[in-house]
Amino acid sequence: MTLEDFHSYCLAKPGVEETFPFDQHTLVFKVMGKMFAVSGLEREDFTVNLKCNPDRALELREQYEDVQPGWHMNKHHWNTVRFEGELPERLLRELIDHSYDLVVAGLTKKLKAELELLK
Questions:
Q1: I want to staple 66 with a disulfide (CB 3.0 to 4.6 A). Which of 4, 5, 85, 116 is the partner?
Q2: Distances (CA, A) of 70 to 12, 66, 81, 119
């Protein structure tokens, strides 16, 4: 999956905005103001930090070399995923969806109701 494909896929989700809260090189996608994907645009390898269920995060790291503990993130809840490696695009999309869904599940009732109106 290319950076452009990743970008389009994330922005197509309801309630998503792209931001650069840290610097002009760190792209952050948020749903209703909560971060679900982070990518350093200046890195040689195209990697993305994605939120993940802790048990599944461990399984993915054991199964795939291109999934590592989240770089500069809580390694219990975040993975760094190499997007230009051996992982199939289907799995990359699934991991983006999983991260998005985890963040949405943790939103307040008010934010969830606002998000529903955007669908």
A1: 85
A2: 24, 12, 8, 30
111: enclosing H helix or E strand:
helix 109-118
Residue with tokens 């930090």: 49
> In one letter, which amino acid is 61?
R
Q: Residues 106, 16, 8, 118: what is their CA dihedral angle, to the nearest 10 degrees? A: 100
Q: How many domains does the chain have?
A: 1
State which residues form the domain around 104.
3-118
Mean of all residue pLDDT scores within the chain: 94
Angle, CA of 2, 43 and 19, to the nearest 5°: 70
Rounded distance between C-alpha atoms, residue 26 and residue 100, angstroms: 18
CATH of the domain at 98: 3.90.1150.30
